[in-house]
């Protein structure tokens, strides 16, 4: 049987069998030995054998992982001092879209965090979507101004607003949601998927330890009338940010398309850092071709990657609190 992995918890994988609609059609599976050391993550499409009845206590086996259309990674920089802490981890497979949830106030938007997510999205070849919550508390002008050059798709969310625009962008796609604590991510997920609590309850049936809170869970979106195909939203409660040590300096620049053209006159192998004497980016910004805050943000990410900055708490512009995690 073919299935889709919706949750992972300590060696047990919750899968939804293809062609089934209800939460009750979830089966619990373990990895078959023939998978070797290949990891199975949320979003993976897998082949299952054994007891796929989904009955209590039934355990199926995952024997194959389909080729992934995208891989969203993070370097786990929670602990940079140990080899384990520097491990590159696959967060989610086969996502189409990265929904970056940021509040417009309370907590204030952190462009450093958004920039980091954009790099992760471009690196994974996943389309970014900026989801600006608490639009009832503050306007989006400052944030949108900062990204003016990027043509970044965005939606505004307020408590009383219809979610039609967002639903249309999520329909038929697999979207990963990331955001800091308090930005209104849970509120939004509950509005989008009213049965979310029940689905999470199903996950608890296979054992919910303290590790579970850090893993991703896929929730099926209600199908819009006339909508095509299943939409999935993958909540990532434990992923507060993306360590980017696995991203090359060149790939990092892809998260800053407004700066790319400014590097054409750089000397070969220019590191583009503030210390690089002939880096073309300084002139590019001085000529007004890009926002100086964008260059500063790019260089902060470069520095955090090189290990001479604090990847977990790079300073933010405009006196905002540092990005955590
Ligand atoms: N004014 C306003 N408040 C909101 C909005 N969305 C959520 N809130 C409030 O913001 C607070 C945080 O919302 P949550 O949904 O718990 O935020 P979260 O991002 O899930 O945070 P964690 O659960 O810590 O991950 C709650 O008190 C919500 O009621 C909004 O659009 N406008
Ligand atoms: Zn340069």
TrEMBL record:
Composition bias, Basic and acidic residues: 307-319
Domain EngC GTPase: 93-240
Residues the record lists as binding GTP: 133-136, 179-187
Cofactor mode of binding and number, as noted: Binds 1 zinc ion per subunit.
Record flagged with keyword Protein biosynthesis: no
Keywords: Cytoplasm, GTP-binding, Hydrolase, Metal-binding, Nucleotide-binding, Ribosome biogenesis, RNA-binding, rRNA-binding, Zinc
Cellular localization per UniProt: Cytoplasm
Pfam families attached to this UniProt entry: RsgA_GTPase (PF03193)
GO biological process, one term: ribosomal small subunit biogenesis
Reported cofactor(s): Zn(2+)
Main subcellular location of this protein, as a coarse class: cytoplasm
SUPFAM superfamilies: P-loop containing nucleoside triphosphate hydrolases
Family per similarity comment: Belongs to the TRAFAC class YlqF/YawG GTPase family. RsgA subfamily.
Name recorded for this polypeptide: Small ribosomal subunit biogenesis GTPase RsgA
Gene: rsgA
């Amino acid at each position: 049987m073919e299935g889709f992995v919706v949750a992972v918890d300590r060696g047990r994988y919750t899968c939804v069998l293809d062609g089934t609609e209800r939460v009750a059609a979830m089966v619990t599976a373990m990895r078959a030995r023939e998978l070797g050391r290949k990891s199975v993550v949320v979003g993976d499409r897998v082949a299952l054998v054994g007891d796929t009845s989904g009955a209590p206590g039934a355990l199926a086996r995952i024997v194959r992982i389909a080729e992934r259309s995208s891989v969203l990674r993070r370097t786990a920089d929670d602990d940079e001092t140990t080899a384990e802490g520097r491990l590159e981890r696959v967060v989610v497979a086969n996502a189409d879209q990265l929904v970056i949830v940021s509040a417009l106030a309370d907590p204030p938007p952190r462009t450093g965090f958004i920039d980091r997510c954009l790099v992760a999205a471009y690196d994974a070849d996943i389309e970014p979507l900026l989801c600006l919550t608490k639009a009832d508390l503050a306007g989006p002008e400052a944030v949108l101004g900062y990204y003016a050059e990027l043509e970044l798709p965005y939606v505004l969310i307020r408590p009383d607003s219809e979610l039609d625009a967002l639903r249309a962008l999520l329909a038929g796609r697999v979207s990963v949601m990331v955001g800091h604590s308090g930005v209104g991510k849970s509120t939004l997920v509950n509005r989008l998927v009213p049965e979310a609590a029940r689905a999470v309850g199903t996950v608890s049936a296979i054992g919910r330890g303290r590790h579970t809170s850090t893993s991703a869970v896929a929730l099926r979106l209600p199908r819009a009338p006339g909508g095509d195909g299943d939409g999935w939203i993958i909540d990532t409660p434990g992923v507060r940010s993306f360590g980017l040590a696995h991203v090359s300096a060149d790939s990092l620049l892809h998260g800053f398309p407004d700066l790319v053209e400014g590097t054409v006159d750089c000397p070969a192998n220019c590191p583009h850092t503030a210390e690089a004497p002939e880096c073309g980016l300084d002139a590019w910004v001085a000529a007004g071709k890009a926002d100086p805050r964008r260059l500063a943000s790019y260089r902060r990410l470069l520095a955090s990657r090189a290990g001479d900055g604090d990847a977990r708490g790079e300073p933010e512009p405009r006196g905002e609190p540092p990005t955590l995690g």
